[in-house]
Specification:
2-dehydro-3-deoxyphosphooctonate aldolase; eight-stranded parallel barrel; TIM Barrel; two-stranded antiparallel ribbon; DAHP1/KDSA; transferase; 3-deoxy-8-phosphooctulonate synthase activity
């Protein structure tokens, strides 16, 4: 499916972004993506596989960042070939845009980089779908400027993702008004249910999280009108190399999707 068809499909029907935070190994990526593919078929929902080849924004310099762009894209390409799932992954530098767009259907702009004009323009010029995560430091209405930067570069395929706002130290809160505010810009609004329960730097050398609240916030976001839900899922979150405390256990993923699908049906009725 090309990016234009995927974008059209995701503007008309609810969708899910899911996968481990970071690529830990080829074997884990393939086994997890096979489960996600099976769940996509069972639920009938479009699921875009997400995993990062490099987590450039980590609490500690000693934290695991990923396999890097070359090996990471090789693994993501294999996931795509084997499962047929669309791929989304982060870029951090304008120079990465074209290379990543050869594999990924959606280029994701990390929250801390959502105002970086050169990065947004380079991503836009690939013609891929661009998913911009709202900075924890921005109001939802401020994201219209990010959308316009992508559109001015000739790309109308833009999504915005809410991931919570900074609230004091080591905590985030979600203002669900952001969902209708951001859809008001004429773009799909996605809710990041797992990063929204993150406790940034909350464990000193790494971030903490409260994964028990992921289902609650995901259900609320769908009721508020979110077009998509983003969830980092992992077969063993307690031993994940990145963002384990806020990742949803893979065995809880399908039941939650059943609930979200039912709420979407009510909202769309």
């Amino acid at each position: 499916m090309n990016s234009a068809k995927l974008h059209e499909k995701c503007t008309q029907r609810p969708f899910i972004i899911a996968g481990p935070c970071v690529i830990e190994s080829r074997e884990m990526a393939l086994s997890t993506s096979r489960v996600i593919k099976s769940i996509a078929e069972k639920t009938g929902l479009t699921i875009i596989y997400k995993s990062s080849f490099d987590k450039a924004n980590r609490t500690s310099a000693s934290s695991y960042r990923g396999p890097g762009i070359e090996k990471g894209l090789e693994i993501l390409a294999e996931v795509k070939r084997e499962t047929g799932l669309p791929i989304i992954t982060d870029i951090h530098w304008p120079e990465q845009a074209n290379q990543v767009a050869e594999v990924a259907d959606v280029l994701q702009i990390p929250a801390f980089l959502c105002r970086q004009t050169d990065l947004l323009v380079a991503a836009a010029k690939t013609g891929s779908i661009i998913n911009i995560k709202k900075g924890q430091f921005l109001a939802p209405w401020d994201m219209e400027n990010a959308v316009e930067k992508v559109r001015a570069a000739g790309n109308e395929k833009v999504w915005l993702t809410e991931r919570g706002s900074t609230y004091g130290y080591n905590n985030l809160v979600v203002d669900f008004r952001s969902i209708p505010i951001m859809t008001g810009f004429g773009v799909p609004a996605v809710f990041d249910a797992t990063h929204s329960v993150q406790l940034p730097g909350g464990q000193g050398g790494c971030s903490g999280g409260q994964r028990e609240y992921v289902p609650v916030l995901a259900r609320a976001a769908v009721a508020a009108g979110a077009s998509g839900v983003f969830m980092e899922v992992h077969p063993d979150p307690d031993n994940a190399l990145c963002d384990g405390p806020n990742s949803l256990p893979l065995d809880q993923f399908e039941p939650l999707l059943g609930q979200l699908k039912a709420i979407w049906e009510i909202v769309d009725a």
